[in-house]
Design brief:
The complex is a heterodimer of chains A (273) and B (282).
Chain A (H helix, E strand, L loop, with lengths): L1 H39 L3 H10 L1 H34 L5 H13 L2 H12 L6 H6 L8 H12 L1 H14 L2 H8 L4 H30 L2 H7 L9 H10 L3 H30 L1
Helix pairs in contact in A: 1-13, 2-13, 3-7, 3-8, 3-10, 3-12, 5-7, 5-11, 7-10, 7-11, 8-10, 9-10, 10-13, 12-13
Chain B lengths: L1 H9 L6 H30 L1 H8 L2 H34 L5 H7 L2 H4 L2 H12 L6 H6 L8 H26 L2 H9 L4 H30 L2 H6 L10 H10 L3 H36 L1
Helix pairs in contact in B: 2-14, 3-14, 4-9, 4-11, 7-9, 9-11, 10-11, 11-14, 13-14
The chains are: A mainly alpha (273), B mainly alpha (282).
Chain lengths: 273, 282
Amino acid sequence: MSQTYLPGQTRQGERILIAIAVVLTLLFIVAPLAYIFVRAFSEGWRVYAQNILDPATLHAIWLTTMVAIIVVPVNVAFGVVAAWAVAKHRFPGRGILVTVIEIPFSISPIIAGICYLLLYGRQGLLGPWLQANDLQVMFALPGIVLVTMFVTAPFVAREVLPLMQAQGSEQEEAAVTLGASGWQVFRRVTLPNIRWALLYGAVLCTARAVGEFGGVSVVSGNIRGQTNTLPLHVELLFNDLNAVGAFAAASTLTLLAVVALILKAVLEGKRST
Amino acid sequence: MTAATAPIRAKRVMPGFTLSLGTTLLYLTFIVLIPVLALVLKGAEIGPARFWQIVSSPRAVAAFQVTLTAAVIATIFNAVYGLLMAWVLVRYEFRGKRILDALMDVPFALPTAVAGLSLTALFSANGWFGGVLEAAGLQVVYTIWGIALAMAFTSVPFVVRTVQPVLEDMDPALEQAAITLGARPWAIFTRVVFPAILPAWLAGCTTAFARSLGEFGAIVFIAGNLPGRTEIAALLAFIRLEEFDYNGAAAIALVLLGFALVLLVLSNLLQNWASKHREATR
């Protein structure tokens, strides 16, 4: 009896645990995801299209796209440059530098927004100077871009740095010895080695940049049709009691998140081979 | 003697050191360090007496209490659910496992405002879950349970993704030895597996807790934001800004920043313990 008892019990235990995991995930993760589309289309395709084509929503989509177009290339470049400095060279304070790169991960975006407001706002440290020179950073595109840069700064570096460290720099050193210039070494040797991790980091950075809410809501001023990014527009529509409109706007962000997840899975596969 | 070897050692083979390090430092200084410094300077300007007055005001104390309580509830849920998910995803083979694994990243990929919107609608009286729960006498939306729910949703991947690699790395010989010695499954889990993953699990829970304390986007939708009842600290800081009370906002933000840094240090210590532990149990 004891022979059949133990394996039978564990297989049954296994099935129960899998069932609990699947049910909890369906309720906790899948339901919120599915509900966005259910509600967005609850009044049919026509209303959905109307909601998406609403000028304010289109403007929010445009603004969010602009922010991502500016922020992502900058942080991709920063990630690569920072990883190159840390992984390919030895210098005192490397550990501290890595910690500083990771700071934005541990700071709540809303605190990041407050930091920027205290720096660039009218009462901020640089406020008088900015006003004297007629420069508007807060409650305008530059502020939104800067905060988004802060929040997403570590994403690419975090993916590329460990890979560069693991690969070492023998290949690059050989190329240098053979007379390659710094740029040639980077383009021909380093870049092919890190391209999947780089792309993966860029995907994560884009997803985060597009969805940023807390920091942006501090510095944008929520000016309708001007500084309203897509996530802020979702909140605005929700507060206007236009739930279907809010869900329609949210569905575009959700679609983007799903695409990012699929890309992530594909790139993870590529990276491990 | 050292003078002869020094020039050779100091000669850098890899190009672009000054350029890459210079660019990195410049970018970090302007994007990260100076803004954070602006907050710290503001805190210094407020002065300890005024700072304490702001932070210990009844509304602020209530906000900190709500935030901490909800974050504790969320972290307890994630500690259990995250551990279960990591276990199931590593130890069992079943159909749809890869999809289940990919779904664990949804909370990271989905903008927090979208998550907040969906959870609020889902758990309000006319949503899929809200009707059932309210019939059972449990109100989620506009209560601390809603805040905890939003926190749990946005921070669950931290626990799963921290425990998962450690479980994958565990030496099966330990468990096999325990089975050979006649240990029952539950005893194997509590005596062999759990001690091995404990540091990583605690590190994941700490990060999830830290993330919950700072969460804003998902919570403002579901909380109802009633001062003293369901107003979280991050929102109170935001409200102070809208009232142009920059001192009030900065003081609350500094307390949250302090929490975040302490938890960051704690989580790093736990991670170090975890990696040492991992070497030892391999």
